[in-house]
Amino acid sequence: MLAVKNISRALTSMGFGVLRFDFTGLGESEGDFEDTNFSGNVDDLVAASDYLAQHHKAPSLLVGHSLGGAAVIFAAEEIESVRAIATVGAPSNPQHVQHLLQSSIDEIKANGKASVNLSGRTFTIKKQFLDDLETKSLPQVAKELRKPILIMHSPQDEIVSIKNAEEIYHAAHHPKSFVSLDGADHLLMDKRDSLYVGQVIAGWSSRYIEQPQPEKIKSDHHVVADLPAENGFTTQMKVGSHYMIADEPEAVGGNNFGPTPYELVSAGLAACTAMTIQMYAKRKGWEIKELEVHTSYDKQHAQDCDDCENDTAKIDTFKREIRMQADLDEKQRNRILQIADKCPVHRTLHSDTQVLTTLVE
User: Which domain of life is it from (predicted)?
Assistant: First the structure.
């Protein structure tokens, strides 16, 4: 589901290593949902944790959406490494699913299974799933868990009511937190909602778990771009000792999770211009209280070019506006304009440059 992907990407952008998986037969997971029960889904979480502990690093944070929120609370009781839990739109008791299946419960009990529609999708539910739910008491587990928990829920959730969040909150011990996802639907269909959820979880959990550090990318270069095939245009970047994301707008097939390559170039020009101006002003003893450099990139028809008779002749153009609050006379302001053109990035853009590329296996 797109919401889960967005939450995961928001977490990874802040340095978390994330294992994302769906219950059997849901999302991108193989198998048939009808062959599972709730306990089996919890067991899958524990098995995934064991795998991470053996091959990578034991998980310290569990995040669950909807029925997965209930599952992570049960699983956290069995996973010693978990230091914090976050739930999103979770039912206070897995029996809440029965409320969604009222029209099919009799059919399930009579025939052993039935097809039901949840949020526009059709699933087959077996009697063993309902029987398993009746044995679970999530409030009791939450009460005994004694681990930090973040409960996120929308007051407008029409699938799992906000009352469920209240029941989980009252059952849990401190430290516990609640964040209202006002205006969001149960599936977090608006990308802004799911990205917000990921960002909040990352910030909240930093109080309870070791602050994750981005994976160190070994390279002799100052900048590294990492783009696996499945990520579309969403590119993980190491810029000096800092980590960020570059992307393309949704209109051209990107996710708009970060600035475009040309926006990054424009940002370099703007930052370098501001630094150069302030450095010169301080050396001269001129006070510039506020300084903003606004830049944008486009291709425009060149005013002076060798091929001006060709209507398609265009040139890379950076527009730059300098806005400042400073008590400077006209001569000083003209000097500031001259200094702006002397910033190193500006000079690089105007100089002959070369890019030497090698392919390394």
Answer: Bacteria
Per the listing, tokens 């010169």 go with 280
Q: Which domains, from first to last, does the chain contain?
A: 2-205 (3.40.50.1820), 261-350 (3.30.300.20)
C-alpha 292 chain-centroid distance: 29
pLDDT in tens, 95-139: 566 666 655 667 777 777 767 665 566 667 667 766 766 676 778
Say if CB 262 and CB 295 are below 8 A apart.
no
Strands of the 235-239 sheet, one edge to the other: 223-226, 235-239, 242-246
Q: Tell me 104's DSSP state.
A: G
What pTM was estimated for this model as a whole?
Answer: 0.64
Q: For residues 220 and 76, what is the distance between their CA atoms, to the nearest angstrom?
A: 41
**What values do phi and psi take at 225, rounded to 5?**
-115, 125
Q: Is the peptide bond before 249 cis (omega within 30 degrees of 0)?
A: no
Cα separation, 280 vs 45, whole angstroms: 58
In DSSP notation, 129-197 reads HHHHHTT--HHHHHHHH-S-EEEEE-TT-SSS-HHHHHHHHHHSPSSEEEEE-TT--TT--SHHHHHHH
Rounded distance between C-alpha atoms, residue 125 and residue 119, angstroms:
15
- Tens digit of each residue's pLDDT (9 = 90 or more) over 44-91: 899 999 999 999 889 999 999 988 888 899 899 899 999 999 999 998
